[in-house]
Amino acid sequence: MPTEDDFVPVILGTGLGAYNLARSLHEAFGVRSIALGRYALRETAHSRIVEVRARRDFDDEQVVVETLRELAAELATTRPGAVLLLLPTIEHYTNVLLEHRAEVDDRYLIPLPDAATAARVMNKTDFYATCAALGVPHPETLVVDASVLDDPRLGEDLPFGYPVILKPSDTDQYPRLQFEGRQKVYLLDDAAALRETARRIYAAGYDGELIVQEYLAGDESVMRVANTYSDRSGRVRFLSVGQVALTEYNPDLVGNNNAIVTIDDPDLAHSVRTLLDGIGYHGAANVDVMLDRRTGLSKVLEVNLRPGATAFYTMAAGGNLARCAADELVLGRPVAPFTTTVERLWLNVPYAVARWFVPASTRSLLRRASRAGRVHTLHYRPDLSLRRRLDVARVDLRHTLDYVKFSRRRLNH
Q: Is the same domain home to 233 and 373?
């Protein structure tokens, strides 16, 4: 059986999510990871715990597969007998592995569900149908396809009011399309906007279904996230729920979180377990959740087949998500059940920035959790050479300037 010295984590991505995984595995086993991506980003630059290898054409799926096979051949010579654990950090790399798994499966251990289970999660139509069948709270949803474009009354008689969310069901095909005004998710105020947006999406070549969904209003106080690990038997073994305290202000990075507090939420934990156990999920999952203030229910929005870029919040509360994959797949150990329950603060910005820009609704939670303990992913003492300190300082400064710049824009609007 391999020991901690006999495996190499190979991470697809070179940003915050990659450093999250590399640091988690270094803390657990003292191993150094290899990160592959298009650019050597500051989040992983000049690190002692992660070796970055960058190729500008690494967005090409065939290049990804070719690079992985070449790396496996190299390591077979330089680290004979070492087990390779392959971990994606963004949706594109997850899709590549699902599509080309057979081409690298003989060289790498990959903590991902099988193709059929992955499809049930990735296709939003199937996903919300699964939530309904399992009794998992989720937003009210209507599914439409291109045939409704001829209906002049599209959007007039929805079972819920405006504004509404519109998003593509097929999250594999849609990101590949390019057209003016393309967004990941659309917030629409009326039926006319719904019809126009749907026409533009289909005109760009999209041929899947569209999801029309009730909009759950609110600031950070209604945003929650869960990160999990399910073993090969399809049982959730690790679970950590976080309350978002501060989101990103930069419009290009909307959807990212910069402060999260771990919380104990048994009802949400039950919903997440019901969903993932119900489909026999395997591997890490990042679950986006919104609290419906009208009902008090936490409603599941989507599941990503990988750890979240901000999943290091689980470490703040004493839970090592990345270790679960290494324990199960590399070391052959059963993954011990663990759920984080204490309040701790995770940060991706200096604490002073979080305190200044956090909304009033989550300010007291942030301060209370900070007193109990806080963690910044990039502030890792064993990995703070002078060059590394400069890189981390530049990342923190970039975030700080973004909040100053875009908070002014918010005030002006």
A: yes
